[in-house]
Design brief:
Layout: E1 18-22, H1 26-32, H2 37-58, E2 62-69, H3 77-100, E3 103-108, H4 116-128, E4 135-143, H5 145-161, H6 172-177, E5 189-192, E6 211-214, H7 224-234, E7 238-241, E8 244-247
Helix pairs in contact: 1-2, 2-3, 2-7, 3-4
Bound molecules: farnesyl diphosphate.
Farnesyl diphosphate binds near residues 27, 28, 44, 67 and 194.
């Protein structure tokens, strides 16, 4: 990939503050090497760790990673159980370093589908990292964009039925307050690896004006340098907000 700007850790006001990742291609990477799909996901988890580390120096304040979709349950038991085990191990092995490095961790998605011990691990990590401010790492797990929008609609309808809200008062900001990502800005940049050119139910509400980059690299081979190139290239993209054209 060509980069017009010399890579440097200097941060400009045009760098994206929130980047979303669709970490695709673990299975294909593993198959190409005669490895199991879970080994591909393990390698993928290592790549996420590398990307997290360089976000603060790039000025990326929010990183949201799609780790497990509401559709991923359709995969075989072996892969689903392997992924759940991987989340457990990842939280177990990474928690301390993440917290020490000042990273705040949040999980979005329907966690009630997971066993209580994993839910407890997730809550404890969120709590332990609550006051950190170097980066907000959000892991989307059993997450679906449509599921989120349904939950937003349900929450707003409940408020209206209880008489706390008139229908005329419902606007984008009211809905947004009930989004899973209400604590951060929308992502300016989404990166999907493995050459697939779909959004696959990721942050549907939030990607309205996001720049979306599709990279052919399989996720287990996605390096921090490549991430940095996408972040730096973002600076040169023109985004159109309705009729207003602005350089971001
Ligand atoms: C898609 O690749 C990837 C996933 C469904 C899982 C992503 C999970 C990780 C990268 C693990 C790390 C996350 C954490 C938080 C530990 P795919 O399996 O669909 O690949 P394929 O399209 O090549 O089959």
């Amino acid at each position: 990939m060509k980069t017009n700007v010399a890579l440097s850790p200097s941060v400009t006001k045009n760098m994206p503050t929130h980047v979303g990742l669709v970490m695709d291609g673990n299975g294909r990477w593993a198959k190409q090497r005669g490895l199991s799909r879970i080994e591909g996901h393990q390698r993928g988890a290592e790549r996420l760790r590398d990307i997290v580390k360089i976000c603060p120096e790039l000025g990326v304040q929010f990183l949201t990673a799609f780790a497990f979709s509401t559709e991923n349950w359709k995969r075989g038991d072996e892969e689903v159980n392997g992924l759940v085990d991987l989340f457990r191990k990842y939280i177990g092995s990474e928690s301390r370093e993440l917290v020490e490095k000042g990273i705040k961790i949040k999980f979005i998605g329907n966690r009630t589908a997971f066993d209580q011990s994993l839910v407890d691990q997730m809550c404890q990590l969120e709590l332990a990292s609550h006051s950190n401010d170097k980066l907000v790492l959000t892991i989307a797990i059993n997450y679906g964009g449509r599921d989120e929008i349904v939950k937003m609609a349900q929450a707003v309808a409940t408020q209206a039925l209880a008489g706390h809200l008139n229908v005329e008062q419902i606007d984008e900001s009211v809905l947004n307050k009930h989004s899973f990502t209400h604590y951060m800005p929308d992502p300016e940049l989404i990166i999907r690896t493995s050459g697939e050119t779909r959004i696959s139910n990721f942050l549907l509400w939030q990607v309205a004006y996001s720049e979306i980059v599709f990279d052919d690299v399989l996720w287990p081979e996605f390096t921090p340098e490549r991430f940095k190139e996408h972040v730096v290239n973002f600076e040169h993209k023109i985004r159109r907000f309705g009729s207003i054209t602005m350089k971001v």
